[in-house]
Design brief:
Length: 382
């Protein structure tokens, strides 16, 4: 993939892939331009997907798939309930959850990072944020896994069969979320869903379907990507052993290291858009109504933007990577993802004097997600 990106950035930075029916964009400046112009590069793909009630309902509150002005309404409302202060207050709870998960493996000389920490940590945090009962949490992992199953990625736009299969999972998620929202309307608590139910901007509130879509988005967007990032941190530490030593010696370097892992192993490789008009990108004219894949993972290695882009440098500054997006859709969960991963890595480095990747690593085979879905580790305890 990286060799392909390098070749394409050089020779065909904007290229038409007739077989896949998409246009690829590879350079940092062009990717940024695509993401910065939602009027020309839309996030609404409903015209490409077969209509399906459950999918439509799921998408109604999914701000990732909305353009202005609906996007602004949803984002303003959910931002009110999902502020940096709300996220910062979660830190002590994230510490406790990470400790509990690692305590369960105390003294073990091996663990499987995804099942034991990287997946349950973000799922538990999001579920707590949403006020969802602990016993229901295993379902989320299952839902998330089915929606990003490899077959969903043979094409970036789901075909009829795939849409039907997704609809089955979405129906289950929609019903569950609706029930949860109704309970919260009847008896509000301190959780995010209660806040979303009450949130109001310019006299506008979110309806149940919009909240369902947002909850679904959080469960998916906040889970797989954060899990992938945590596995990517460990894979980078394995590849660059002196970095682990540097981080133990100077933990204040950890936030910079996490940004560099985000750049170096981009968890979500492309962002997808649809052209609303004919548009010039670089030297190419992209017709109206086409799918554009803006490759964040390629932009992050663009030698026009980064000095020594293939060098892993935890002190890189500035580090204008695009792994969390850019423009109006910039990742709403970025502070949470950074916080969770920082706490998890601090705990791992604090507890273990050494870790090494063991046999049996499995990488995501879904196009678009970069990270491990199984990461066995040998541990040495401090
Ligand atoms: C949007 C990446 C974690 C919630 C995005 C986008 C990217 C991204 C690239 C923009 C996509 C686009 O423009 O097409 C990531 C990565 C994460 C992460 C790499 C982890 C390392 C999270 C978490 C949450 C979250 C933890 C919430 C709990 C969202 C939401 C949006 C979004 C709601 C849509 C924002 C909008 O459309 O206005 N994320 N994300 N993400 N992310 Fe994240």
């Amino acid at each position: 993939m990286l060799a392909w990106f390098r070749r394409m950035r050089e020779s065909e930075p904007v290229s038409h892939d007739e077989e896949a029916g998409v246009w690829h964009v590879f350079r940092h400046a062009d990717v940024e331009r695509v993401l910065a112009d939602p009027g020309t590069f839309s996030s609404d793909f409903s015209s490409f997907m077969p209509a399906q009630e459950d999918v439509d309902r799921f998408i109604k509150g999914n701000l990732l798939r909305k353009d202005p002005p609906q996007h602004r309404k949803l984002r303003t409302l959910v931002s009110k309930a999902f502020t940096p202060a709300v996220v910062a207050r979660l830190a002590p709870r994230i510490e406790v959850i990470a400790d509990q998960l690692l305590d369960a493996k105390a003294g073990a000389d091996q663990l499987e990072l995804v099942a034991d920490l990287a997946s349950p940590l973000p799922v538990t945090v999001i579920a707590e944020l949403l006020g969802i009962p602990a016993e229901d949490r295993p379902m989320f992992g299952r839902w998330a896994d089915s929606l990003v199953a490899p077959e969903s990625q043979t094409s970036f736009i789901p075909n009829e069969d795939r849409t039907k299969a997704m609809a089955v999972v979405m129906r289950e998620m929609n019903a569950y979320c609706l029930e949860h929202i109704r309970r919260r309307r009847a008896a509000p608590g301190q959780d995010l869903v209660s806040k979303l139910v009450a949130a109001e901007v310019d006299g506008q509130r979110l309806d149940d379907d919009e909240i369902v879509g947002f909850v679904g988005l959080l469960l998916l967007a906040g889970h797989i990507t954060t899990t992938a990032l945590l596995t990517n941190v460990v894979l980078c530490l394995e590849e660059f052993p002196d970095v682990a030593a540097a981080l133990r010696a100077d933990p204040s370097a950890l936030p910079g290291a996490i940004e560099e892992v985000l750049r170096f192993r981009t968890p979500l490789a492309p962002s997808m858009r649809r052209t609303t008009r004919e548009v010039q990108v670089g030297e190419h004219t992209v017709p109206a109504g086409r799918i554009v894949l803006a490759w964040l993972a390629s932009a992050n290695r663009d030698e026009r933007q980064f000095t020594a882009p293939d060098t892993f440098d935890i002190r890189r500054a500035p580090n204008p990577h695009l792994s969390l997006g850019h423009g109006i859709h910039f990742c709403l969960g970025a502070p949470l993802a950074r916080l969770e991963v920082r706490i998890a890595v601090e705990k791992m480095l604090g507890r273990w004097s050494g870790m090494a990747v063991a046999d049996g690593v499995e990488y995501h085979d879904a196009r678009g997600i970069v990270g491990a879905k199984k990461l066995p580790l040998h541990l040495r305890w401090a």
